[in-house]
Write a structure and sequence with these properties.
This protein is of the alpha/beta class and about 260 residues long. It has two domains: about 1-80 and about 170-255, P-loop containing nucleotide triphosphate hydrolases (Rossmann fold, 3-Layer(aba) Sandwich); about 95-170, no CATH class. The protein is about 40% helix and about 25% strand. Strands 6-7-8-3-9-10 form a six-stranded mixed β-sheet, sandwiched between helices. A hairpin with a 2-residue loop joins strand 1 (about 5-15) and strand 2. One of its GO terms (molecular function) is ATP binding.
């Protein structure tokens, strides 16, 4: 029996006179890679930002692993179990790769501020465990040898991997990847696909915004297509590819 990890219904968001999202909903099962695609301005990033607490929705209901949650603040969403990456890489440039992942891991720590200030034995033991877990995650995404390198010195593709490692460090129920292949060359895209496959095979769940339609079609179990903030179609990649509304939106046969 499949388990629903994320269930979102009736999400709408307006910015002044622009209706950015109109009654959008998705349902994602554990272990799926779920794609969100659409032309520029379709509302994909707005939906991501609503889902992850950067924007407050005008309407909508949200459930994560069967429990209602309200995406009102980024840190609360991370605690609830959603981790995300950004289209524009947001790493701590002067920190090492290891330190960047450790920052992500601190969402799940227990020692608190007093323990950190007093350097209690419990704090030191927890910091050691965090560092070990961060190193494991760097190895997992394929950049373990760069643990002590500053984030800004890594290649573009490796910075993307570091962002994914930091997201994984929060032990998320759902990882939301915003255009992870943007700016990657062909080799880096192949490696990214292998990493996403690996994450899925480990029973983790991924929501993916991506402009590279070929990558999405080859990776995703199910997908939703947005256009002008509305849901055009949802289904398997093969179902979506055959949908006349999707063909029209992408190929422009309807005069827009």
């Amino acid at each position: 029996m499949s388990e629903t990890i994320l269930k979102v219904a009736g999400v709408s968001k307006r910015f002044g006179g622009l209706q950015a999202l109109s009654d959008v909903g998705i349902e994602i099962q554990r272990g799926q890679v779920y794609g969100l695609i659409g032309p520029n301005g379709a509302g994909k990033t707005t939906f991501f930002n609503v889902l992850t607490g950067l924007y407050t929705p005008d309407s909508g209901t949200f459930e994560l692993a069967g429990k209602p949650y309200t995406p009102t603040a980024v840190h609360e969403v991370a605690k609830a179990g959603i981790a995300r990456t950004f289209q524009n890489i947001r790493l701590f440039a002067e920190m090492t790769a290891l330190e960047n992942v450790m920052v992500g891991r601190h969402v799940r720590t227990h020692s608190g501020l007093i323990g950190a200030v007093l350097r209690t034995p419990g704090f030191k033991a927890e910091e050691k465990a965090i560092a070990e877990r961060a190193q494991e995650l760097l190895e997992y995404v394929g950049i373990g040898k760069y643990a002590d390198y500053k984030a800004r010195t890594l290649s573009y593709g490796d910075q993307r991997r570091l962002e994914i490692a930091r997201a994984l460090a929060t032990d998320p129920q759902l990882i939301a990847l915003d255009e992870p292949a943007a700016g990657m060359n062909a080799t880096e895209k192949v490696m990214l696909r292998e990493l996403i496959d690996r994450i899925r095979n480990d029973k983790r769940t991924i929501l993916l915004i991506e402009h590279d339609v070929k990558l999405v079609m080859g990776l995703c179990d199910r997908m939703t297509v947005l256009d002008y903030g509305k849901q055009l179609a949802s289904g398997t990649p093969s179902e979506v590819q055959k949908n006349p509304k999707v063909i029209e939106a992408y190929l422009g046969t309807g005069g827009h």
